[in-house]
């Protein structure tokens, strides 16, 4: 609540031009940071080769599904390992503004209402700037075409060039890489294939929520049903599940997220299907069939055998792609052999308290699957780590968790030391219930504030005009929303501008703030 009142006072002072807009704190001693997003975490622009025009196709609201189908749908080329847009005149490009941060900050910069649902690294970027990081000096981003393989040479060449440019821009300081989700696989592929470059430019690598051994349940569902970028009502503004499904079937990156074939799982990921089976005596039985990762491939092949799309009047078959599967197996070999160089420190932050879906089940004992073709229509890092920390959070939400920010701040040695963070046991010291309640009465806290300014001007007053003038009154209100676990605060202020008298003008600010505990 005190923060809200302080914001009001600062706003009035800036309005009166008593203070300038505060410049962000910059710490020139910080090591540079490169942020690397995961799947669907980069803005993608479609470039028309005929006229050179660019337009954002991921993410957008207006005409999103149409542009997605006409510009991003693609086919895999086994001779190059690239997935190429079906539209021969379209190429996909990642914007480079703001030193690469623009593409990974807010995925739809034009969105106003409900903008939080398209935040990616936004909250983390804001927090890091508070710690003293500066865009283009110590803070950079690396967006990429997430449809492509994580070991595509074109992407790895871009990453190598990015590391070199960041190294030079920061005055020859080694880089801290922070990756999220599939971005961890991209970094691990680069580390495995270009270990010398990685060791030359990288100081620390912090992986957040990286699916190092694959995301078997998620990917099985993707192959059979597609996926949606967001949940709930927001998906109506983006891409239909079916359109996304057709894209992902031709994306090498998705196949590279299949269950790691050489990992000794504590609980083997399974694809489970309730099937109705008729015995030789004519009596049908309901049985639960289970398929291990290698066995699931036959189900994917059968379920997608008739899958196709209509593109510009042409029917294009899109079955489960065995050429991409072959490519992905080579990627898994690269990932399994990659090691952290001796001069680089590796840290791993992973989500806990929300189970990762390793297995997936279709149908039920009451409603079994009668035809595999109907399935599409149903609705451990292995590296030497300096530290591994589990944070209660969901996959995308972990990027805006205050707990994660405190961990990163400590590992990056940024800003002032946090006296309430214990890096040994990784816990945050919070006030006791008694200490909290001692500052409140029945969960309600009220704070009042009064401040006055007197502005001296060289302008002379017109005596005839003085009597006709009246005080100007305006108001400001700010609030900080809460939920079931947090408090709600509101602050209201009234500003009175009195008429100028004898070269002086007086302003009054009366404010009251109210905070109610949940």
From TrEMBL:
GO terms for biological process: lipid metabolic process. It comes from Durio zibethinus. Pfam families: LCAT (PF02450). The gene is LOC111280449. This is Lecithin-cholesterol acyltransferase-like 4 isoform X2. InterPro entries: AB_hydrolase_fold, LACT/PDAT_acylTrfase. It comes from the Eukaryota. GO terms for molecular function: O-acyltransferase activity.
